[in-house]
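Wed. Picked up where I left off yesterday with UDP-glucuronate 4-epimerase. The coffee machine is broken again, so keeping this brief.
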Amino acid sequence: MRVLEEDLYPSTPGKVKVERAGSMSRHVHRCFASTGTMFLWALFLVAMTATYLSVHSFVDTSSRYFAASWGGLHWERQIRASASPRRPPGSAEGAGLSVLVTGAAGFVGTHCVLALRKRGDGVVGIDNFNSYYDPSLKKARRALLGSHGVFVVEGDINDGRLLAKLFDVVPFTHVLHLAAQAGVRYAMENPASYVHSNIAGLVSLLEACKDADPQPAIVWASSSSVYGLNDRVPFSEAHRTDQPASLYAATKKAGEEITHTYNHIYGLSVTGLRFFTVYGPWGRPDMAYFSFTRNILQGKPITVYRGRDHVDLARDFTYIDDIVRGCLASLDTAGRSTGTGGKKHGPAPYRIFNLGNTSPVTVPTLVSILERYLRVKAKKNVVEMPGNGDVPYTHANISLAREQLGYKPTTSLEMGLKKFVRWYLSYYGYNRGTHTFRNS
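Structure written out below (tokens, as returned):
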């Protein structure tokens, strides 16, 4: 039987009010009960979210910690063993140095580390193994260093925690700073990488050095590129360097000003080295002599740039062994830093030297030497030099380095390229009979 709507309400008026009040009370109770439930659910969701974020943060932090390529007791033991000099304090050469080398798996870095190790110094390397050029070449260099008992940390010089840890584990006497984003032309493609490495990275390293106790003496790689548009030759340290022709040159010039500031404020001993076109075995594939060799052997054309009015470009090509001798002489003659705890207690040395060969050679002459040693004629495309920051001519005045460092280059371009070609054919496994590479 269907219930009528009026049957739901009593006929007595008073009871209607009571019943309606009770009904309203029940609705209010249900409402508050529902709100309370929602509130409890909201609290639960907030708690779950907070728990998730906390756990996620912990897992993320933990994964970064466990994924880090440095840290731990075993790592520290490796660092200390690598940094320990092998020259006895009373030896004729004097006490061994303990050197942190940045960019240790790079071209110049590898050769310097080997030379330091050979004479009994303690060395620890650091390198980020970036992909500017083939990282496998850098890893092969690291393997070579490892075979000589040198430990290379994989890390970035912008990592302040890593640098602080290294200086905490080892009281380095010297830092040889060679890490940098190299190359003039690449700066037009990726300018940020130059600021990150050559400026921010340098400041990060200087901060670690000025806070270290004891403060190390610093030798670092500037560049002949700082001479920029200077047309006075040979280039002297006394010449102007305020007209850079490329972003790379500008970052190196900025580095010279920054290091001077840290020398002045914090008493860091600083020596800047202006390298002139370094070449040789284990070199950089982006350099002209290296890419020329590869393309000539593969039968590909090479691009040879000329300056205005068909003037051949010329470079002061400097063989790697001569550069290494200049670097080690700079380390040996570097005066002590004078600060402690980031506070300067007296003036400290600040020096800049040219390291070149003093015998500029034209690029066509370089190509002809390579053709002779490779026994292959190059296919040349001769074009006018684009406005990419390159300069037409470099020539080093090395009188200051000769006087204060005893620097004396001894390797001609002929001899240096002969050694490079021998290494190149061996490393890449080139077979002259089949004109193929076994390990390309």
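Quick read: Residues 1-21, 49-67 have pLDDT under 50 and may be disordered.
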